[in-house]
Amino acid sequence: MKKERFFEMATLAFSIVILTILGVLSFQYMISIDYGKYFSPNTQPEVIKVIAKQYVWEFIYPNGTVSIDKVTIQAGKPYIFELTSMDVIHAFYIVQLGYKFEAIPGYNYSLPIQINQPGVYDIFCAEFCGPGHYAMIGTLQVVNASR
Amino acid sequence: MQRLTWKDYLAWIGTVLGLFVLFLWVGDFGKLGYLVQSPISDYISNLWLITYIAGGGVFSVFMGSLIFFAVKFKERGEEVTIKVPRAKEDLFFFKISFPFLITSSALLGYDISLYLSNPVTTMNYQFVIGLLITFEVAVLGAIIFVIYKAFYSD
């Protein structure tokens, strides 16, 4: 095989290998995130409803308590955020988690979530939802399990 | 036809590897330091690491080869310099705009590095920073145009 041909084939093979690895991993990770497969077995995740509306995040805890723009969860404990929107399309974006999830009116989406590190994290809207979009900022507070 | 020696191959590989290391260093070796400890962020981190290293490989091979070939096969004919007298106002524009060019480029670079180092902070000030970057790009573009006109006034 000629040198030029070899290099040409090598670039093709490199791209195919990398894209295949990324594709397979992404698929597995997506399944794991979507179904909360990383939760340890025999644990019952707590469901928190998240309602997005111009320009606030409303959180409803299982006991009915409503919180605006602030949600508190325990570190290392599994939760499911049930996302929906009251008006237009929003996107629930936790920057430090590196993940965002769409909130669409009329649909309920489940986002299994578990954060192991206590701290205060930002929640942004990552879908342009109107003139006040930039002000739609919430806080996710992760506290130690003992609190 | 000029043939490559082993020294040339070494220089070529050295350029590619140098650019690869530079690329990794700029992006903190593919680490996303601001992510929280969570299974989801671990997934994101793994995917980013693979993507970044692979992207660095592609960048360094193509850019390294481009730089190596540009230097190695540069036209080395006899150079003739012709001094053309310049209009006074051309030089005036050039002298005025040069410090602005340097300042706005540095500001633009600072803004970008700020975003890359901590997107969380910058997200809080996204509107102001977006506005600032827009102005900086506009100023940079205008100054580049002035300099271009200073050199190619016709």
Features:
A: 147 residues; alpha+beta; Immunoglobulin-like; 2 domains; five-stranded mixed sheet; 1 helix; 22% helix; B: 154 residues; mainly alpha; 5 helices; 76% helix; 0% strand; flat
List strands and helices in order, with pairings.
The complex is a heterodimer of chains A (147) and B (154).
Chain A: H1 3-35, E1 46-53, E2 56-60, E3 66-68, E4 70-74, E5 79-85, E6 90-94, E7 99-103, E8 109-113, E9 119-125, E10 137-143
Parallel strand pairs in A: 1-5, 4-10
Antiparallel strand pairs in A: 1-2, 2-3, 5-8, 6-7, 6-9, 9-10
Chain B: H1 6-26, H2 39-72, H3 88-117, H4 119-124, H5 126-151
Write structural notes for this entry.
The complex is a heterodimer of chains A (147) and B (154). Chain A has one helix spanning 3-35, and strands at residues 46-53, 56-60, 66-68, 70-74, 79-85, 90-94, 99-103, 109-113, 119-125, 137-143. Chain A is an alpha+beta fold. In chain A, strand 1 (46-53) and strand 2 form a beta hairpin. Chain B is mainly α and 154 residues long. Chain B has 2 domains: 1-80, no CATH class; 82-154. Chain B has 5 helices and no strands. Chain B has helices at 6-26, 39-72, 88-117, 119-124, 126-151. In chain B, helix 1 (6-26) packs antiparallel against helix 2 (39-72) and helix 3 (88-117) runs antiparallel to helix 5 (126-151). The chains are: A alpha+beta (147), B mainly alpha (154). The A-B interface holds A 14, 18, 21-22, 25-26, 29, 32-33, 38, 95-99, 113-117, 119, 121-122, 124, 134, 137, 142 and B 32, 34-41, 43-48, 50-51, 54, 57, 119-120, 123-124, 126-127.
- Reading the helices and strands of chain B in chain order gives HHHHH
Largest interface: A-B, 27 and 25 residues
Please count the beta strands of chain B (DSSP E, at least 2 residues each).
0
**Strand residues, percent of chain B:** under 5%
Low-confidence stretches of chain A: none
Briefly say what this structure is.
The complex is a heterodimer of chains A (147) and B (154). Chain A has 147 residues and is an alpha+beta fold. Chain A is 22% helix and 39% strand.
